[in-house]
Amino acid sequence: MPSDKTRTSDDIRQGYKAPVMQQGRVILDRDFNSLQETLSGAIEADALDIIGPCGTPDDGFAISIPSVLSPPVSDAFDFLISPGTMYVGGERAVFPAVDPGRQAFTYSYFNQPDWIHPFPPGGLKREFIYLRLFEQEVSAVEDPDLKDVALGGPDTTQRLRLMRRVERLLVNDTTCGPALNEAEISWLRSGFLFDPKTMRLVPQATLKVTVVKLQTVSQSCDPVAQGGYLGAENQLIRVQISDAGNGPDGQAKLLWGYDNASFLYRVTFDPNGDRKTLHLNQSPVDAFHTPQAGQVVEVLRTAAVLGSEPDKTDPANSSILRCVAEATGEVRTLDSGYDPSKGTVVLLDPPLPQDYLTDSTPVFLRIWQAQLAFKPDPAGFTVELTDPVGQGTTTGSVSTGLQVTIAIAKVINDQQVGTSVGAYWMIAARPSTPQAVYPERFLTSPQPPDGPAQWVCPLAVIDWTGTSSGSPPGVPKVTDDCRKHFDNLVTRTESEELVSKAFSFGSDGKPIILNDGDTILGSDLARGLRVLLTQNVDSASVTAAALFVTLELPLNLANQVVGFQPLILAANAALALDNNAALAWTPLPVTQAFLANQLSLNGQATFQKDWEVKSSIWRYDSGIAVNDVPFTQTPDGASRLAFSNFPLREDAVALFASVLTGGMGSTSTIGIIFNASGPDDFWIFRLENVLEAGGGFTFISSTLVVRHIVNNRTTNEGGETNEGGELTLPQFLDPITIEFRISQLPNQPLTFSAKFFLAYPSSHVEFDLVPTTAPQRLERGSRAGLFSKFFGITSFTDLRVSYKRGDSQVLLPPAILSRLTVKRDLLRTGDPQGNQFTLALPDFSRWFFLRPVQGGYGYGYGSRVIGLGRL
Question: Where are the beta strands (DSSP E) in 368-440?
């Protein structure tokens, strides 16, 4: 709620950097507020210059449509909002991932911290989802914790809070650009112009103050009465637009009040259900501030609950909610003023809405002086600020001696402009200078509003109809992710963001935005992809090595997935003909046929972007690259390389893998590979087996090894050791389940453990390894994956990562996975003058060929090459 301050500051407008204290002088609220406004303005400007209009550093505020919400909600049109950070116009908005008790938060449209009563959705249509931020002051009436009991009850300063709301708007388009254009028109019709440079919604109204000239008849020798402010006290008058005037008479309304309309009361309703009688929880401070009959008030609901604390005034030791009131509410006129014997006021008709009566959170009463009508007009409409009850204890409508002229723009960019409801101005008036107001600029020219300060940021577009191209019929889909991402300065120096967006093409030729986890049809992928960049690139640097699509195909044996075969699809990569900042990926004809007909039984794959990967590659043993190991396909499919490459969040605490093996051979190895300590520092926790036969039995010597690779050099951090001894199996083909676990605890090195579960005899053996030089943690942005070279069956049954907040992520793809990779270090970028850099192309000589086979996934022998197998 607005604060009771003396006047506003123009320090930022005047170019002042900071107030300077002097000895022996009185310090006013204006001085303190000036310091805060100057500092916050500088921080906002710096953030806007450095970060830009809007962006998230941690994938915050991602919009998704889950199949099941927890906790479940009754509305079918709810959506999830991921925790994280979003910078908007220099303001930092955060949805925390955990509460102070370390319990994970789940956010959705109907479960937002700063919006208890969100607007109902528009139904089965398309919606533009955006984040709206606005500043709001919080008083001690709303948050009693701002009072200090040592002072005996009086409040001191208020607090300024940045309110965060994810809102929705009906649109026609399914992509961010056109949907944002529709939103801009909608905001403009509400009286607010969107500024894409600052992300602000700027109210399109101005106000000018003039003094009322006194109508008196005087003798020629009498002094001339000049008129002006007639109040007896120093005042900060708040003028606020409260009604847009969309009714038949076209009359808009404004509210005005003394003391910056800062006086607020907690109220409760009459127990008999009367929606006009309100009980004030505290008495007015004096007669001047006692609500009078005919005075205008505003009833507000709670916007956000901050917590609770014991009510020290209640002998029953009940709790009182600490909360934030809504900025606007229901405006009414008092039928009866404050009755001190009952502690009540009575409102004129109409009664308040039923929702106010049944609301379980606090309701507040805000005190204004009057509500006056004006006509929205670009030329301006003048309204005299009159007090219907008189200032103080006097009765009858009297003039303040001031009048305001409000002008409302009608057309901007060929679009109609509405009246800016909520826009306000703060005008300081002093009896000692009745013909002046402060700031003085209100008297010289029409001035923009002092608030509200609000910003918006596009988040996503949702199609609830399920009719978008590329979406299964009837299934709602997030058709476009509108968020911008950025790295911190350290990460930015390593790899500046180059890729902006990727999309495929539907059967109708329309583009389909591709986000992580989307389902992409094989027929759509066969039509090619388009990748949008943030910089122009040299066409000669666009090769198949810089832009490629990888399919991770499940290898099936006896109806079980026994591994994943990565293959890179044969295609042409080139600069788009119509855009030097766009890449075109076009599959070769044989690849198109494979994708359209043999991708999978249902013709679909899960899309995953792997943009701007680092130039380093994982290595093991004596410098041989894991992703360069030749793949030899024998007729019976005995030898396989299976590997997946998954990114981890920075708060990962454990990696877990479970593998079912059988028919192990003398060259069999299996394990987990991951980053630790740095992007070029690779570790492998693996099992090696040595086969010895004799006396009808098979002896398998199991050696657990932790290998550490950096700068292409290998060390055996765990040692070539048989810490687990030997495992003797009576049957060569008896299956073994092997579990690998890599864990990390705070301030401790990583620990490595493994378990062998034998089918016969039913038992298990456990191993723990403590490397001599173990890494302390999993590196942020690191990758994890499984690999194996086995004769016989190798079935990866589980690969999971656990995180600090208790959630777990399954890494193995459940079906065909398509990855789009852009190797930015291979693309030559530069400015229009042609300043570019060049890097060498990778060596393709050791990649293995994959050929199409009828009825298969594309590996094996055939007549034509369709791709190159590589990770």
Answer: 370-374, 381-387, 398-408, 411-412, 415-416, 424-429, 437-438
Written as six digits, the tokens of 202 are 């700027």
- Mean pLDDT computed over 87-115: 87
Provide the pLDDT for residue 763: 65
Residue 625's pLDDT band (cuts 50, 70, 90):
very low
Q: pTM of the entire structure?
A: 0.63
Give the C-alpha separation, 212 to 103, whole Å.
60
Q: How far is CA 559 from the centre of its chain?
A: 41
Question: How far apart (Å, rounded) are the C-alpha atoms in residues 563 and 544?
Answer: 26
Contact (Cβ atoms closer than 8 angstroms) between residue 205 and residue 191: yes
**Looking up tokens 């006509």, which residue turns up?**
375
In angstroms, the CA 401 to CA 562 distance is 86
- Determine the residue type at 333: T
Is the pLDDT confidence value at 47 over 60?
yes
Answer with the residue of higher pLDDT: 817 or 463: 463
Contact of 299 with 275, CB cutoff 8 Å: no
At residue 335, what is the residue type?
D
Residue 267 gets the label, from left (phi > 0), alpha (psi -120 to 50) or beta, of: beta
DSSP label at 836? B
- CA-closest candidate to residue 58, choices 358, 370, 488, 403: 488
Tell me the per-residue pLDDT of 653-698, one tens digit each, with 9 for 90 and over.
888 887 766 655 555 667 777 766 555 566 777 776 554 444 444 4
Q: Residue 262, exposed/middle/buried by CB under 10 A (0-12, 13-18, 19+)?
A: buried
- Residue-wise DSSP of 264-303: EEEEEE-TT--SSEEEESS--SSSTTS--TT-EEEEE-EE
The CA distance from 347 to 552, in Å, is 68
Beta strand 604-611 with 817-822: parallel, antiparallel or unpaired?
parallel
- Angstrom distance (rounded) from CA 155 to CA 145: 10
Q: Is 456 exposed, middle or buried (0-12, 13-18, 19+ CB in 10 A)?
A: buried
Starting at the earlier edge strand, list the strands of the sheet with 205-211.
205-211, 398-408, 381-387
Buried/exposed code over 216-236 (b: 16+ C-beta within 10 A; e: otherwise):
eeeeeeeeeeebbbbbeeebb
Q: What is the pLDDT of residues 121-136, one digit of tens each?
A: 877 789 999 999 999 9
Distance, CA of 774 to chain centre: 36
Judge whether 295 and 387 are in contact, CB under 8 Å.
Answer: no
Does the pLDDT of residue 241 top 60, yes or no?
yes
Residue 8 to residue 799: CA distance in whole angstroms: 60
From residue 433, how far is each of 319, 387, 440 by CA, in Å?
47, 20, 12
Q: Helix, strand or coil for residue 814?
A: coil
Residue 860 has a pLDDT of 29
Q: Examine residue 350 and say whether the peptide bond preceding it is cis (omega within 30 degrees of 0).
A: yes
